[in-house]
Structure to design on (204 residues):
């Protein structure tokens, strides 16, 4: 499907990204691991690390508590998922600290997995606060952000959004769209250079 869209619409193959929430977040991790040559990056929101489970029973267990694995073991699962040896997609991980559906420990496991895949020490990162929420970034040797983790303080299970006054007056946000004053979609679009910062400055 991605190839069909790319060919039909003249999409730059170096600017293809994927993102998803919950089961979609887990599938995003699957796609990044199994088709790393297709995607430049991905946003995993309240998802599971690749290889966390192989059937429904284990998925339910992993949602509550990911299995104990070393960063190397998590990383090896990704490396063994394809024959790819080139660059790996950038990964942006988002999770609410009060998520009662998918435990925030899965964000930690995802972080261990993808920092290992990128060959980065998990303990070496830069930390900032964005709209009151913790954001950590890991850079490659070129100084580019290749892994990032944003923890949304107090948020449950859903996608973080920031509604404008006009949107707020239209009614409540949809299911699993949680207004926390920070939009993961807009942040991802900016970091992937899909929208200009100037054009989106009023829609944070």
């Amino acid at each position: 499907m991605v190839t069909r869209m790319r060919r039909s619409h003249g999409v730059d193959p170096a600017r293809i990204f994927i993102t998803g929430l919950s089961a979609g977040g887990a599938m995003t991790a699957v796609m990044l691991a199994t088709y790393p040559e297709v995607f430049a990056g991905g946003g995993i929101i309240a998802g599971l690390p690749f290889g966390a489970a192989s059937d429904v029973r284990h998925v339910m267990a992993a949602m509550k508590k990911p299995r104990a694995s070393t960063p190397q073991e998590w990383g090896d699962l990704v490396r063994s998922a394809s024959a790819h040896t080139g660059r790996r997609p950038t990964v942006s991980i988002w999770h609410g600290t009060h998520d009662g559906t998918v435990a925030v420990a899965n964000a930690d496991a995802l972080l261990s997995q993808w920092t290992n895949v990128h060959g980065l020490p998990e303990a070496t990162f830069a930390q900032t606060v964005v709209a009151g929420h913790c954001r950590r970034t890991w850079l490659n040797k070129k100084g580019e952000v290749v892994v990032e983790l944003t923890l949304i303080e107090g948020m449950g299970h859903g996608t973080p959004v920031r509604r404008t006054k006009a949107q707020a007056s239209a009614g409540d946000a949809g299911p699993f769209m949680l207004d926390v004053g920070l939009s993961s979609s807009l942040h991802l679009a900016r970091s992937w250079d899909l929208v200009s910062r100037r054009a989106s400055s009023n829609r944070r």
Observations:
- Residues 12-191 form a domain with the Rossmann fold fold (CATH 3.40.50).
